[in-house]
Amino acid sequence: MLGASSAGTLTSSSPGFRPAGPTKGAAPVPGLLRWWLALERRLYGGPTPASWETETDERWVVLYDGKTDIRSLWNALLRRRAPVIQVGCRAAVGGHARLLAESRIAIPEKELIGRSLAICLQRQRALLERANRVLNQAPSLSDREIPIDEAPVRLSRIRVLQFMAFHVFRKLRNQILKPFVRSIHCEIEYRTLTNHGHSVAKLSQVLEERSGWCPMTSPAGRFYADPFLWLDESGARHLFFENFSFETDRGVICHWNLDRAPGEAIGPVRVVLERPYHLSYPFLFRYQSDVFMIPETAKNKTIEVYRADPFPHTWLLHRVLMKDVIALDTTLYHDGETWWMFTTLAEEGGSACDELSLFYADDPFGTWHPHPMNPVVSDCRSARMAGNLFRDARGRLVRPAQDCEKSYGGALVFCEIVECTKKTYVEAILTRQAPPPGYRGIHMWNELGDTVVTDLLRPRWK
Fold first, then answer.
1. Number of continuous H segments (helices) and E segments (strands) in the chain
2. Measured between alpha carbons, how far is 70 from 55 in angstroms, rounded to an integer?
3. Residue 73: partners with Cβ closer than 8 Å, 6 or more residues away
4. C-alpha closest to that of 238 among 214, 255, 219
5. Which residues, 6 or more positions from 355, have their beta carbon under 8 angstroms from its beta carbon?
6. Can you spell out the DSSP letters for 144-205?
7. What is the pLDDT of residues 389-417, one digit of tens each?
8. Alpha carbon of 297 to those of 17, 254, 302, 303, 329: distances in Å?
9. How far apart are the first and last CA of the chain?
10. Backbone angles phi, psi at 160, to 5 degrees
11. Quick one: which of 95, 9, 110 has its CA closest to 57?
């Protein structure tokens, strides 16, 4: 949390705004909620009591779902919703603030309010630092005003009891089902599109026509996920994907030949990259005459690049682009002049589904520069990548993303990148697609020519 010595002062570049004034003490945690937080900590570990409360530096206005009362944040978590935290500075007149930083936060363990609260307060500290940076270094990046609601928020004892009952119910249900059902299982499916180039506009129709999809059945104790397509120089189609083992709790990268003659079985799945840590999301790209892969290596806190030698079954470590980072689903895009890197950066102990960062470089193995607007997206509904960027039939540059508001990979979102320069980034949501009936999530979307591949999430019997 920013203190008086670390927070910047308001400058002449921010006319009409002033500090928020004396800070009121943080609302006390009600006795029943404090007892439940302490019980959670004893049962599952987690944050210390000191992290359950926070006070804000007086120069900022912090809003929780539009309200200054932190009980609004507690209510959101008790309702198991993804809260929105905003930081701004108060206008000189009127009940408005100039918005400097905001985030809609993914809550991965909604039944544990202590951990959820710790994630939110960790993000609040990051937002205060971003607000300070924007105000003193790039004040022109924010000209949006938001209303301030200072009305007190009531925290109902019944709401706390309902949350406790939900927690107990979920734990009992999970214990009953645990011997029989996997909590998460992914299935890869692929199909040919008859009207290629219109997949964004007709996405619902494409997914609902289940007869056109070809599933990849994974063996017992494993699931297949994160599929990427590749077309080699001979015109053959290849599929690279994560092969996750429940026994080792680790993924490896596998290859599958997607082409076959009529009536001929597709060749066996072959492991092409394995490390002593988890691998997933095998993004592929070509540079000069070589094919490279950037698998997700967040467990190793690196962004690693592997070169095919030879393609497709042998991959050698070529370069480590970044170290000491928790980077997920790294995806590159070359616009003809500049290389862009889209990746989700997470803090230790924080959410890994709600902040997209952007970097740029002259070549993929040069110096990567952070975008001044990072994170360019701080919203669990559209931050995390879901595959390659592509052009649709109207020529729009589309970024597939995951909607993780309700759950990880709960739905797909397609975002148009309206503007992407070394100083600005603007995108707009084109469409959101829920999973087809019978599935709990849809996680990836990649296209190659007339072929599309995705993966779907649903429970599966052991």
1. 5, 27
2. 10
3. 64, 65, 83, 85, 117, 120
4. 255
5. 103, 344, 345, 346, 375, 377, 378, 383
6. -EEE-B-------HHHHHHHHHHHHHHHHHHHHHTTTEES--EEEEEEE-SSTT-TTTTHHH
7. 999 888 999 999 999 999 999 999 999 99
8. 44, 15, 6, 6, 9
9. 45
10. -65, -45
11. 9
User: Are β-strands 84-91 and 96-104 bridged in parallel, bridged antiparallel, or unpaired?
Assistant: antiparallel
Contact status, residue 411 vs residue 428, Cβ threshold 8 Å: no
Q: Which of 177, 208, 234 is the last residue of a domain?
A: 177
Tell which phi-psi region holds residue 453, choosing left (phi > 0), alpha (psi between -120 and 50) or beta: beta
Residue where a domain terminates, one of 123, 145, 177: 177
The predicted model gives 159-166 an average pLDDT of 95
Query: CB of 157 within 8 A of CB of 30?
Result: yes
Residues 318, 307: Cα–Cα separation, whole Å: 6
Q: What total of structural domains would you count in the chain?
A: 2
How confident is the model at residue 25, as a pLDDT? 45
Overall size of the chain counted in residues: 462
DSSP label at residue 364: T
Tokens of 298: 């967040």
The C-alpha atoms of residue 103 and residue 84 are separated, in whole angstroms, by 6
Lowest mean pLDDT among 9-18, 163-172, 399-408: 9-18
Find out whether 91 and 17 touch, Cβ atoms under 8 Å: yes
Residue 66 burial (CB count, 10 A): 12
Give yes or no for a contact between 455 and 227, defined as CB atoms under 8 angstroms apart: yes
The whole-model pTM stands at 0.90
Under DSSP, is residue 113 helix (H, G, I), strand (E, B) or coil? helix
Tell me: do 154 and 195 sit in the same domain.
no
Q: Specify whether 392 is located in the same domain as 331.
A: yes
With beta carbons less than 8 A apart as the criterion, state whether 360 and 346 touch. no
Q: Is 22 helix (H, G, I), strand (E, B) or coil?
A: coil
Q: Which tokens in the block code for residue 138? A: 């790039």
At residue 276, the pLDDT reads 97
- Which residue range(s) make up the domain with 405? 182-461
Angle, in degrees to the nearest 10, between helices 113-137 and 31-44: 100
Q: Phi and psi at residue 86, in whole multiples of 5°?
A: -125, 145
Among the residues of 293-333, which ranges form H helices? none
The proportion of the chain whose per-residue pLDDT surpasses 70, expressed as a percent, equals 86
Q: Are 332 and 290 in contact (CB under 8 A)?
A: no
pLDDT tens digits, 269-282: 899 999 999 999 99
